[in-house]
Design a protein that fits this description.
It is built from 2 helices and no strands. With about 45 residues, it is mainly α. Helix 1 packs across helix 2. Keywords: Membrane, Transmembrane, Transmembrane helix.
């Protein structure tokens, strides 16, 4: 039971980590498309 619970927790954490990576990748991709957003992102 303990091992299966650890696997489930690790699975949930890996999904959350992957979602964060996807969000960062989408944000960087959108910033690269428009120079104005990239400049605002760097200045802030």
């Amino acid at each position: 039971m303990i091992k299966s619970q650890n696997i489930i927790v690790f699975f949930i954490f890996s999904i959350n980590h992957a979602a964060i990576i996807v969000r960062i990748w989408i944000c960087t991709a959108s910033n690269n498309k428009t120079d104005n957003d990239a400049l605002l992102f760097q200045s802030s």
